Amino acid sequence: MPGRFDEIEIGLVVALGDVRVDTRALEGFIEAFAPGWPAERGAPDAMVYAIWSRLDAVATIGWPQTKRLGVDALRWARNPPAGEMLRGRMTIMGKDPVGDGKGIVIAQHDLLDEAGRLVFSCLTRSVFAR
């Protein structure tokens, strides 16, 4: 877990956890949000984003992150099939102090498959307490 803003180092890599693409969840997501998407193509892009978002939300509980300012440069590399294990990681790319009590942290987030191939990536900007 990253510490407070002043303790975070550029280049730090943080594991965000892992999750398996659940068959029932995939089917339910397609039915609700991606009608017509063939399940054999794997998880739709929006579901891949939701998987990353959940890993990120769970991993950041208790962090001194006070606000997510943005999620940019979203990239989808592949659609993982049901049953595949995905893991998330965050790499600190930059940071900028903003006043006495906080700073902005820029991070690259990656979602990787079992073989270590990129599935999804994005950049985030977040406010961390100092």
Report on this model:
- With 130 residues, the chain is an alpha+beta fold.
- It has helices at residues 23-33, 45-59; strands at 13-20, 65-76, 85-98, 102-112, 118-129.
- A hairpin with a 3-residue loop joins strand 3 (85-98) and strand 4.
- The protein has 2 helices and 5 strands, in the order βααββββ.
- The radius of gyration is 16 Å and the shape is elongated.
- A 5-stranded antiparallel β-sheet has the order 1-3-4-5-2, covered by helices on one side.
- The model has no long low-confidence stretch (mean pLDDT 96).
Short description:
This protein is 20% helix and 44% strand.
Number of helices: 2
Helix-strand makeup class: alpha+beta
The side-by-side strand order for the widest beta sheet comes to 1-3-4-5-2
What composes the largest sheet?
5 strands, antiparallel
| Low-pLDDT residue spans | none
- The proportion of strand residues reads 35-45%
Give the topology.
Elements: E1 13-20, H1 23-33, H2 45-59, E2 65-76, E3 85-98, E4 102-112, E5 118-129
Antiparallel strand pairs: 1-3, 2-5, 3-4, 4-5
Annotation keywords:
alpha+beta, elongated, 130 residues, 5 strands
